[in-house]
């Protein structure tokens, strides 16, 4: 389970929240005149690299990129607010577990604050044209295990681009990861922003709305978190409080209907009315007061999603309201941790299955657990508690899977025993000694795919254990083989030597079936950046960017796939003042239908990549801040 560290800095700007992920892969920091102009983060979720939004506004002063190694993770952020107003961030230092840091100002330029407390797995804050504040999500770190294939997904911009480092994976995961959706807020733009988020909340039990003669003056929400209920309130109580209680946990809010309008008393727009609808088909009374001239709004997720948290703006009244929703269509079943209520929460997430379980004892109770999960072709380990002697129980995954867990916990809230059962009818040894209250974690026709729980604060013992279950996949019948005509093996692509200066880091996108789109960025001295989108099996694959994007941005050359393909690449390279080696100064692309405009400046040593009856199916080269070399992969043009 992650912990949300409060955003520190100024109070100006709009609230942003990238949410919780498995880790951070890359940090972008944009410099402003006297402060940090913008930040942007790339996150890791399993094998996916999720590209977050830019928070703030780019300037002409450049962007620093700080990449975290696959076997490392962020643990510390040091920031400084400007001394005069404390409303903007003037410097940011990021540090990893292994001690790697970004470039930053060594002398203190302002009022210092830090974010730390574990592995950093997400960021939130405030921004306008600059960064005003920053906060983080942290969790207890486990051994980084992120090497292998990564798929890149620009989720925030809804661009479904995926790339894979290394060989292509044909495995299909049957588990749908729960995803949050943030809707709104609707209403006015004054008051202080608030965001209860969805972190750690299991659901909403009760909503209390304050109404006066002008509209809705406040909202109070009772959430469940870690088996306990806690209340968040936004706005000011000036009138009557009215409650709407749900049949929790079976019933949940699916939508909010309301109105907002300008109110003279507050000299701003506030929420006038609120009505809630639930998963049981119930509709609450209308709270607030109607107005002749008002604007209607609806806050709801997709396909009856479950409301998990509110956000908006409030001050003397409720200025605006929105909500976070979780998709209710996920096949996963979540059993909340059973046992005591104390301790630090943790959550391993969701995997394909469990292959090994290790359990250690402490003072007669369960003091340590370690789980080895399987995700695709990768193993991921998570451990919790103080390491001790580890009796192990192996599971023959994927031929066998865990179906249930039985355990007991004592009056102090410590788990005293654990026993695991599998799909083959096997039962693990009893770890610990059964005493106290019994609990069972099991869902019919489901398999266990992830654990969550809590560890005690005083004794290093497991105080609660929960789990997530996924439906058991339906066996696919083995098809009867039918004779087929032999298919000739594909002709491997040929790699043509790169041309240009011998400087920078080598890169190679490999070869594909076709090229779909090309991005070229120019700098003051030539081509500074290239990126290619390829096709394989009628699926789009986005390659990495090579070089460094300048403030001039990129130009695009899109092919009429699948009817158009590249037959040659022309360009030139030259020695440019200030560079150790030649840089590519111009490239252009010729297809079976047309020729692109030249990208860059035509001058220097020319080169051409072309082979009769072949097409370009991949690129390689060398780059640093500029593109120094470029080469191609070619394959025969199909006659079909």
From TrEMBL:
Pfam family, one: Jacalin
Organism (species): Raphanus sativus (Radish)
PANTHER family attached to this UniProt entry: JACALIN-RELATED LECTIN 3, JACALIN-TYPE LECTIN DOMAIN-CONTAINING PROTEIN
GO molecular function: carbohydrate binding
The entry's keywords: Lectin
Alphabetical list of SUPFAM superfamilies matching this protein: Mannose-binding lectins
UniProt similarity note: Belongs to the jacalin lectin family.
CDD domains reported for this sequence: Jacalin
Taxonomic superkingdom: Eukaryota
Keyword Isomerase among UniProt keywords: no
PROSITE patterns xrefs: JACALIN_LECTIN
Identification of the protein by name: Myrosinase-binding protein 2-like isoform X2
């Amino acid at each position: 389970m992650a912990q949300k560290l409060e955003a520190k800095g100024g109070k100006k700007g709009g609230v942003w929240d990238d949410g919780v992920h498995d880790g951070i892969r890359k940090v972008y920091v944009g410099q402003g005149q006297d402060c940090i102009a913008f930040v942007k983060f790339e996150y890791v979720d399993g094998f996916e690299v999720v590209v977050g939004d830019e928070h703030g506004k780019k300037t002409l002063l450049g962007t620093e990129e700080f990449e975290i190694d696959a076997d490392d993770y962020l643990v510390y952020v040091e920031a400084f607010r400007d001394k005069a107003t404390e409303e903007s961030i003037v410097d940011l230092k990021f540090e990893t577990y292994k001690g790697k840091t970004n470039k930053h100002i060594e002398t203190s330029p302002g009022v210092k604050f830090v974010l730390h407390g574990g592995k950093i797995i997400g960021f939130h804050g405030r921004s306008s044209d600059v960064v005003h504040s920053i906060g983080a999500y942290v969790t207890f770190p486990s051994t980084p295990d992120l090497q292998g294939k990564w798929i890149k997904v620009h989720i925030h911009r809804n661009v479904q681009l995926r790339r894979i480092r290394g060989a292509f994976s044909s495995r299909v995961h049957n588990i749908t990861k729960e995803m949050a959706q943030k809707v709104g807020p609707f209403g006015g733009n004054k008051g202080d922003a608030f965001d209860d988020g969805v972190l750690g909340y299991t659901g909403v039990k009760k909503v209390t709305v304050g109404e006066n003669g002008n509209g809705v003056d406040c909202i109070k929400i009772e959430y469940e978190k870690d088996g306990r209920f806690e209340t968040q309130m936004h706005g000011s109580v000036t009138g009557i409080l009215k409650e709407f209680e749900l049949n929790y946990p079976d019933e949940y809010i699916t939508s909010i209907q309301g109105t907002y309008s300008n109110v003279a008393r507050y000299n701003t727009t506030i929420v006038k009315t609120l009505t809630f609808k639930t998963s049981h088909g119930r509709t609450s009374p209308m709270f607030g007061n109607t107005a002749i001239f008002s604007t209607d709004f609806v806050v709801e997720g997709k396909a009856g999603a479950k409301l998990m948290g509110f956000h908006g703006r409030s001050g003397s009244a409720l200025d605006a309201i929105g909500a976070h929703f979780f998709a209710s269509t996920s096949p996963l079943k979540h059993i909340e941790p059973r046992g005591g209520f104390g301790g630090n929460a943790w959550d391993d997430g969701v995997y394909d299955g469990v292959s090994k379980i290790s359990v250690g004892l402490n003072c007669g109770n369960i003091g340590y657990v370690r789980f080895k999960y399987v995700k695709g072709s990768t193993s991921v380990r998570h451990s919790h508690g103080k390491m001790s002697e580890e009796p192990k129980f192996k599971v023959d995954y994927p031929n066998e899977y865990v179906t249930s867990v039985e355990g007991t916990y004592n009056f102090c809230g410590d788990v005293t025993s654990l026993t695991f059962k599998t799909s083959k009818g096997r039962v693990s040894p009893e770890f610990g000694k059964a005493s106290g209250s019994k609990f069972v974690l099991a869902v019919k026709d489901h398999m266990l795919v992830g654990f969550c729980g809590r560890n005690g604060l005083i004794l290093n013992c497991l105080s609660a254990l929960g789990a997530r279950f996924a439906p058991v996949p339906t066996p696919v019948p083995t098809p009867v083989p039918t004779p087929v005509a032999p298919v000739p093996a594909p002709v491997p692509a040929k790699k043509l030597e790169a041309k240009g200066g011998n400087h920078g880091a080598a890169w190679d996108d490999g070869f594909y079936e076709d090229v779909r789109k090309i991005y070229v960025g120019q700098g003051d001295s030539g081509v500074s950046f290239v990126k290619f989108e390829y096709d394989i099996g009628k699926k789009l694959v986005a390659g990495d960017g090579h070089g460094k994007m300048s403030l001039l941005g990129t130009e695009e050359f899109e092919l009429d796939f699948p009817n158009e393909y590249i037959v040659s690449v022309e360009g030139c390279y030259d020695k440019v003042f200030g560079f150790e080696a030649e840089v590519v100064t111009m490239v252009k692309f010729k297809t079976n239908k047309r020729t692109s405009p030249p990208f860059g400046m035509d001058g220097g040593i020319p080169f051409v990549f072309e082979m009769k009856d072949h097409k370009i199916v991949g690129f390689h080269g060398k780059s640093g801040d500029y593109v120094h070399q470029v080469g191609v992969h070619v394959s025969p043009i199909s006659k079909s």
